[in-house]
Fold these 2 entries.
Entry 1:
Amino acid sequence: MAIKIYIDQGHNPSGPNTGAEGNGLKEQDVTYIVGRYLYDLLSSNPNFEAKLSRQNSSVILGTNNSTSLRTRVNDANRWGADYFISIHTNGSVNPAGNGTEAYVYQSTGEAFTLAKLIVDAITYRMGTQNRGVFARPGLYVLRKTAMPAVLVELAFISNYDDAIKLRDDPYGFAFAIYQGILQFFGV
Ligand SMILES: [Zn+2]
């Protein structure tokens, strides 16, 4: 049986729950396309079955911030996902802040191992700073998902060098996440 991986592209294109902006980029546009590339990579591998939270770029999930998050989590739970990956870009008022990090519900177990492999793969491929993996039990999408869940912050949209990488090579970020997943499952 294929391993079911739910890919949440983090934010809406407009309306509630839009993402961060910086250096002429919108987080929700970056996460949409990275998620779509990751979906294509996983779908081309018979070991996996993937599902996107935003199946096209105009989909708006929920009517406010909390229902937007709930819609994504409920969709993954209902689908019976085996793993949940939420894709984001980081933002800071300090333009020097940069790098890749991920959040998980707790610092042990499958999600933590998967998150570390994904962060390591992104930093290796994209040349971003490795900030590590942190427990963030308060995050809704980590707390309410019924399966191991990883929230990955690809890079800082507010940092010029990171933003250029997000703009110029979204496929590279997606491929690195894919490589992390392959390493996790040993396939
Ligand atoms: Zn975000």
Note: The chain is about 40% helix and 20% strand.
Entry 2:
Amino acid sequence: MTDDVFEVHRARGPFNAAFFSPLGPFIEWNLRRHKRRVYSELPHTVVELGSGVGANLRYLRPGSTLVAVEPNVPMHRRLRAAAARHGVRLDLRERLAERTDLPDDSVDSVISSLVLCTVADPAEVLAEIRRILRPGGTFRFVEHVAARPGTPTRALQRALRRPWAWTFEGCSCERDLAGLLRAAGFARVDIEPFRLHTPFIPFNTQIAGVAHA
Ligand SMILES: C[S@@+](CC[C@H](N)C(=O)[O-])C[C@H]1O[C@@H](n2cnc3c(N)ncnc32)[C@H](O)[C@@H]1O
């Protein structure tokens, strides 16, 4: 089981917060079509795991509430400012996605983007999502995953795994998240694999979809 402690590295914590601010629009432009599809018609209250500096606020209607589970405190100032700009009420929780502290069967929709690559134990996070979702609730995700075995992208993901994880605070490009989602016990999981064409090659293999509780 994961500890409840999220250690922000003195340099890399602020670096990542700063990195995702200017780079956010570029990543967003690349992911927008997939996000529009999976984040369409979100309910009035949404739980987001690892909100970062608020990339997904634009998919919520103004006036709605975002329960943001974000343990990385250097992100909080930018996240608060972004929520205010989008007119979204922010309920910010400095907690890990593995243990949100939300009640069982209490949530209609959980979202994440580019988070299951970074959490210590993605299977534990998926179990937590199932625990908090009401029957019929949805988990909507856009995540980057391991490329198919034997491909040049997969070889690069392997070769760069250590410096990549060091720079991006534990991020792994080698996770079979589609497999974990299918094994997590959801009633139904719809997954669309897709490929980005960015200079960040290990990051280009992605999935988007909806898991139904
Ligand atoms: C790559 S960033 C993505 C941020 C945002 N979702 C986006 O799409 O721009 C990963 C985020 O996951 C957060 N994170 C890392 N480990 C986490 C955990 N165990 N629980 C919740 N959030 C976590 C980080 O603080 C960071 O904000």
Note: The pocket of S-adenosylmethionine is lined by residues 20, 24, 49-52, 55, 69-72, 75, 96-98, 113-115, 118-119 (CB under 6 Å).
